[in-house]
């Protein structure tokens, strides 16, 4: 097969969690052009993915998109979610093999369907892998072993260390105080407390970098001001021109702390240690939305499970957060 299209027009975090699936495809089919259909906000970042050969951005112009897809002459179309609009875009692609998840009635419009429901103890990134694995098995193609790290940007690490003002011997900890909205927001005072405790418990110099997106700058400024009278090295991140630059720059971090899953997932691509704050729910979002970092590098904290308590991030034991994360970093010397 010469060309394969995978449809994943979703948010940044959801796109990041498809990288294992992209890895499986490109590794199993090195001579096949792996192409993706993504939302506009993700398009430039998708072009940085080493497992993707071409990107089609969802412009919303369905007439033009249908023409683009039809003209591409795909052999295979894999759809990450069963939606009528997506079916209408790909139905005349001429692909001999189309596959969609067993979800909603639209699934029956595709030639092949797969149950891509992952186990409760697995992260939702497994859903994309199950889709791809079904396709590979159907074609008697061996399923590759997943790597420990999905994005090797190590050759640019020194550049980003310089960008963030890193000094020799320092640990670099990124703190992103915003939230994606699926859980409550961690208070500025709790971030200040956590940063102060980490600074005191670490056995080596440390520099904290406050990252932000859009109006989250105010949060970063307030936290920075709250620590202005301390001896803690803390900076507000310098603005970068693109999501791709920010995502790549995380290679400089020794740890990434956030209550927003999108930035955490970007850190996971580099196998950076991640510290996430999640809502306390029976659905276990801290497992479902776990990062792609290796298990020993994933730290997840939640308030007690409950309708009211589950979104009250003030109920997280931040003393425990500081102790466990400091122990991890101290052990890396």
TrEMBL record:
Keywords associated with the record: Glycosyltransferase, Transferase
A single MF term (Gene Ontology): ADP-heptose-lipopolysaccharide heptosyltransferase activity
Identification of the protein by name: Lipopolysaccharide heptosyltransferase family protein
InterPro entries tied to this protein: Glyco_trans_9, LPS_LOS_Heptosyltrfase
Residue stretches in coiled coil: none
A Pfam cross-reference name: Glyco_transf_9
Any one GO biological process: lipopolysaccharide core region biosynthetic process
Organism of provenance: Shewanella maritima
GO cellular component, one term: cytosol
PANTHER family reported in the protein's UniProt record: GLYCOSYLTRANSFERASE HI_0523-RELATED (PTHR30160:SF15), TETRAACYLDISACCHARIDE 4'-KINASE-RELATED (PTHR30160)
Organismal lineage: Bacteria, Pseudomonadati, Pseudomonadota, Gammaproteobacteria, Alteromonadales
Presence of the UniProt keyword Cytoplasm in the record: no
